[in-house]
Amino acid sequence: MIALQYLLVAGWAVWLGTIVFFSFVIAPTAFSALGREGAAPLMRAVFPRYYLVGLISGGTALAAALALDLDMRVTAPLLASLVLAAYARQVITPAVNTARDSRDDTRFARLHGLSVRLNLIVLALLLLVGTVVAGIVR
Length: 138
Prior knowledge:
mainly alpha, 0% strand, elongated
């Protein structure tokens, strides 16, 4: 039971920490230091791995939550976050890259905006999970 609680908290914390660090430290610093043209190849290389870390750590957290038989206040937001992250990784990121490569700035801006919104939704869902888990794991 304690090991499953640890896996739940660790998976959740790694995913949340990855989102916060990437979104509020790495991405702004890359664009500030390298400019748009210099940061774009870095972001293209990082994004698939960024989402993969989320999928692995989030999957770990969800598996632990299910094994602990936790209610939908934990499992539903984790599952929704995993679906959104998988969609962003498998569908949105390649479409963003295609739009950028073809210099379709309008499509790029729309898809980038969607990517940012999905990331913020996942962040909000993970913060919600944290408030529930904080009351369960003591």
